[in-house]
Specification:
There is one protein chain. The chain is of the alpha+beta class and 196 residues long. Helix content is 34%, strand content 13%. It has helices at 31-34, 55-63, 74-91, 116-133, 165-181; strands at residues 4-10, 95-100, 104-110, 158-162. A 4-stranded antiparallel sheet has the order 2-3-1-4, sandwiched between helices. Helix 3 packs across helix 4 (116-133). It starts with a strand and ends in a 15-residue tail after the last helix.
Length: 196
Amino acid sequence: MVLAYHVIFTAYGFWLPNDPRGSWSDFVRSWELLKFGPATKVSTRRSLAHDAHDAAFRAAAKRALRYPPVRFDGLQARAIARGFAKAVERTGCIIYACSIMPDHVHMVIARHRYDVEQLVGLLKGDATRRLQAEGLHPMSRYASKAMSLPTPWVRNCWKVFLDHRAGIDRAIGYVERNPLKEGMRPQRWNLISTRK
């Protein structure tokens, strides 16, 4: 039985559907990116981030994006955490660990009555609204005439189903260490629930 999920969701432009290392995408939605090849669908659950690849090719593809890749700063990360806290309050979901990185988020979320994909969508939505309310939305300069803003997030998320306590503990440790591996300070967000 699934007890929790380790999820990763990314900011716009972080991991492209045709990344040379592979992706979980079935197709490339953008004509500008399609010239760099079709989606590189893989089914592996292991991290591909450190696999060898043509970094110059990947950088050229990122330059072809409609908008520059999103990179959250510290103020934006705090606003995102406040948005996540709002989603936790509204849904009653339990977050065991959360790391807000410059271009992606790691979380360990307890099983909930909502599907994990729906929960991630709610978390992203409240985080986006908080960024906008605080004047920190990273895509604000690209608002349309109707004042709609491009989302700072990509669709969907990467997820691992956790069905035993040892796996949950490992995932929590991984998420908590993630900022340290990137030379950042430890993150302690008030939306985290103590594990029972």
